[in-house]
Design goal:
- This protein is an alpha/beta fold and 545 residues long.
- It has 13 helices and 24 strands.
- Strands 1, 2, 10, 11, 12, 13 and 24 form a seven-stranded mixed sheet that branches.
- Helix 4 crosses helix 13.
- The longest helix has 20 residues.
- It is globular and about 70 Å long.
């Protein structure tokens, strides 16, 4: 393998590192001006595998090295010494090519909190127009939604009797029905809306990148391992990467934008000498600038995956293990793009409070007519449903840091789950709410029987907190590792315009900039951040120096 550095032909105005959810939007928006020459670098490959497009393909993509970076967390004290698989998309489209396709903005109060932190331009009234502009919503143009954007939102194309019973059970607990979780208040029970187009997964690559790849000013390179950002003094001037065994350098006249996600962006920053000085010194990396917040402030939604056996009602488990039923399922999808193959991982959502102590909804249930030990493994052979509750606003904070100075080495991911008394209390309360839900009259015809955490687990705080550690797993929403903040915040990495503090020509635009996690699934907020960030870049480029 040569150590000579080749030069990628030509200079670019913008180099976007990562063609995931944020990177695809950035590529689209920045290249819309034919004067901008845009280079997009993606570590994964092309999305030319059928399971990237059939919605239920997430069952085969997660845990598969063709589609997934196969990260693992460190062993977590809060999870009773367990390490978790940590899926991240290894393909153009990033996590949007393997995720749950759930269209969820979060709560208006999430964004108003960002504004209250001093981040002007990030309140709910500021971001709602961006969400609406992105929308191509089945409801059309409304107070809350838009039509004509690239980000298609559809209703689910399959129904399950057992989930209808769960809706009724939630109603018996006083949780109202909702037909739309995306009005700014997501309290209620209802079907998740999904990012699909006529029963086919809509990834960020399908929506934003591939339709514009014919632009002569846009270039995509795949199979690229970025080794570092190239600096001249404190200005980012390019990117060095390895591709097909060759070391290559590309130069940017304008800006370098990291859009590699909450794991990848802090990893690249640290490899480039931008991060906590003591962490860099441990790896023998010369510091360009000491930014203590790079790789800190990791937040994620930890779900307690409760499983209940049922009887007398259909679940996907039986279909999965029947060749005849699988063939019929495939035929239905081929002919009509309906049925179980169109399923997102979770079809039904419940947003409520874990206890009366909370003023606004703080837990989210993902309810699935299936069960399995973990993604990537076969479904159980008995009929069952999964009722997973996650804490929407965890107080635990973790880290992403280099395992070594080798760019190919997987980083150390330490989410620090359940490390605060508040998070342990919410987790315990969430299991109590789950049990109460499954005991409602509407579900009794199906004889729900607790499989996980199991009937031997008591209902006291200590027993439930331990059970949460035993059954808790990520719901794949890492954010916050290069957070937005004010100059006075020593842990802030980027300003409100997503520019890295203390450096020129470098921004981070992806989920890592969230100062606090949104109250729901994080893919659509990430796409909003990218659209808004691209607009900021173009506005700043037009301003006189």
């Amino acid at each position: 393998m040569t150590t000579d550095v080749a030069r990628l032909d030509g200079d670019f105005d913008y180099i976007v590192v990562g063609a995931g959810s944020a990177g695809c939007v950035l590529a689209n928006r920045l290249s819309a001006d034919p004067k901008n020459r845009v280079l997009v670098l993606e570590a994964g490959g092309k999305d030319n595998w059928i399971w990237f497009h059939i919605p239920v393909g997430y069952l085969f993509a997660m845990g598969n090295p063709r589609a997934d970076w196969m990260f693992q967390t460190e062993k977590e004290a809060g999870l009773n010494g367990r390490a978790l698989n940590y899926p991240r998309g290894k393909v153009v489209g990033g996590c949007s090519a393997i995720n749950g396709m759930i269209s969820m903005r979060g709560q208006a109060a999430d964004y108003d909190h960002w504004r209250q932190l001093g981040l002007s331009g990030w309140g709910w009234d500021d971001v709602l127009p961006v969400f609406k502009k992105l929308d191509n919503h089945f409801l059309g143009e409304t107070e809350h939604h838009g039509a004509g954007g690239e980000w298609r939102v559809e209703q689910p194309r399959v129904k399950w009797d057992v989930l209808e019973a769960v809706i009724a059970a939630a109603g018996e607990m006083g949780i109202p029905k909702t037909s739309n979780f995306n009005t700014g208040d997501n309290t209620g029970v209802g079907a998740f809306h999904v990012n699909q187009k006529r029963g086919v997964r809509l990834s960020a690559a399908s929506a934003f990148l591939k339709p514009v790849l014919s632009r002569p000013n846009l270039r995509l390179e795949t199979g690229v391992l970025v080794e570092k950002i190239v600096f001249e003094g404190t200005r980012a001037v390019g990117v060095r990467f390895r591709q097909n065994g060759r070391l290559v350098e590309a130069r940017a006249r304008g800006e370098v934008v990291l859009a590699a996600g909450a794991v990848g962006s802090p990893q690249i920053l640290q490899l480039s000498g931008v991060g906590p000085a003591e962490w860099l010194a441990d790896q023998g990396i010369s510091s360009v600038i000491d930014r203590p917040g790079v790789g800190r402030n990791l937040q994620d939604h930890l779900q307690q995956r409760a499983i209940f056996k049922v009887s007398g009602v259909k679940t996907l488990n039986e279909t999965y293990h029947s060749l005849v039923k699988r063939a019929l399922m495939g035929m239905e999808y081929a002919l009509f793009q309906t049925g179980p193959l169109t399923m997102a991982p979770s079809q039904l959502g419940i947003f409520t409070v874990s206890s009366p102590d909370h003023e606004r909804t703080n837990i989210e249930f993902h309810v699935q007519p299936l069960s399995l030990d973990k993604f990537g493994e076969p479904l159980h052979r008995f009929p069952a449903i999964t009722v997973s509750a996650c804490n929407l606003r965890p107080t635990s904070r973790g880290t992403i840091r280099l395992r070594s100075a080798d760019p190919a080495a997987k980083p150390m991911i330490a989410p620090n789950y359940l490390s605060t008394p508040e998070d342990r209390r919410v987790a315990a309360d969430a299991i109590r709410v789950t049990r109460r839900l499954m005991q409602q009259p509407a579900l009794q015809p199906y004889h729900p029987e607790e499989y996980l955490p199991g009937p031997s687990v008591g209902n006291d705080e200590a027993s439930l907190a331990k059970a949460a550690g035993d059954i808790g797993t990520t719901i794949f929403h890492p954010v916050g590792t290069a957070k937005m903040g004010l100059p006075s915040d020593p842990m802030a990495v980027v300003d409100e315009r997503l520019r890295v503090f203390g450096l020129d020509g470098l921004r981070v635009i992806d989920a890592s900039v969230m100062p606090t996690i949104t109250s729901g699934n994080t893919n659509t907020p990430t796409i909003m951040i990218a659209d808004k960030g691209a607009r900021m870049m173009m506005e700043d480029a037009r301003r006189p120096a």
